[in-house]
Amino acid sequence: MTLRQIASLAVLAVLAGVFLAVIPGHRGWFDVGVYYGTVQHWTHGGNIYDYQRPGTGYGFTYPPFAALCMLPMALVGWHTAIAIATTLNVLATGALLYWLVDPIARRQGWNRGFAFGLAAVAFAVLNPVRDTFSFGQINLLLMAMVFADCRRLSRGGRFAGVGIGLAAAVKLTPAVFIGYLVITRRYRAALVAVGSALGATLLGQAVAPGASHFFWHQALWDTSRVGNLGYISNQSLQGMLARLAPNSPSKAVWAAAVLLVLTVWAHRARRADRCGDQWTGFALTGLASCLVSPITWVHHLVWALPALLALADGGLKATQPARRRLLLGGSAAVYVVLTSGLVWLWKGPPSGLGGFLGANSYLLLTVALLVAVPVPAAVARRRPVAGTAAGRPRTVVLERPLPLVSRELARDLVSRGSRSPR
């Protein structure tokens, strides 16, 4: 990096730090407090789901396997637990930014260190990210596990699916990614994911059988344990319907909306996969998981951020100036809204069109990303076959890209074929 770039990053980092320090909405490590209190209560003979954080009605809402993963917190003090949670989130963020931003920087010819630094500063001030850190939430860790599987898939890794399965065993929302593996015909990885999730769940059952029975038969179906469906922070389809009809949100309308979202997601995710673009397929799946989950708090929307980056990347790739401006401008607008904390202006019952748009702005942006993230058109590929009369390899045009082979592996196969003995 040049001295000017280093100075620019330093200034931006200071500004971001000031913004994070003075902006309202600090969460006081609330979720870490729930995790920490639950583990302490459990190790002293209590039941996992009996604990409630003092002064609140909130307790542990994840499967018993998640509590088992958090058990080491019983060995440390409160401030150490906060430090560990923050450190793990920083590491997960670093991995995600490297995987998502570095390929763009290399393709664009940018200084990779400078691009990573800019992305880190921009990432830090986003509302879902700052809430994740301030609550001490685990979504960034689960995202890192899921997107590590995306890398394994693109490289043909044998253990692809383990990260998705374990993430789904900790928190149910990532199970949508198992659906992605199925609709893209990655059946081996899907079986690995299901096996990992089932094995982890059975481990939780063996360690805490009573708590497991309570979770799967009662707590899982009791949304009141998580919070009010109509609360402004719930930016899911069900949250929107609960705000529109607080007394009787229609389950039929919600089911129809979920079906529509899953149909759009499946179509676009399969299309991305056929083009060898697994990152976009995973990004679209993150959006779908936020929309169809009954409760998607603002901090859960970190799952939508890879799609925001994919939208911006589509603008950088666009060859038509008008499309380039549209995609880059759209991604900038989404970023500004997600940074602003706009939804919190409508904590009270929203009224009128303006209230509806404002109170559901994050949800509406998630829907917009689902349909607007560019998915590359299928491109004909050439595969070397037996030589022709001229002694040169003949090629056959493949009308559809191979669905189970990444673009990098396909290029490698073509290269090896062209060097094969004649």
Automatic annotation (TrEMBL):
Q: Say which family it is in.
A: Belongs to the glycosyltransferase 87 family.
* Gene Ontology MF terms in the entry: hexosyltransferase activity
Q: What is this protein called?
A: Glycosyltransferase
List locations, semicolon-separated: Cell membrane
For this protein's source organism, the top of the classification is: Bacteria, Bacillati, Actinomycetota, Actinomycetes, Kitasatosporales
Gene Ontology cellular component annotations, sorted alphabetically? plasma membrane
Q: What is its main location?
A: membrane
What is the superkingdom listed in this entry's lineage?
Bacteria
Q: Name one Pfam family in it.
A: GT87
Q: Does the keyword Transferase apply?
A: yes
Segments spanning the bilayer are 78-100, 109-126, 162-183, 189-208, 252-269, 326-346, 352-373
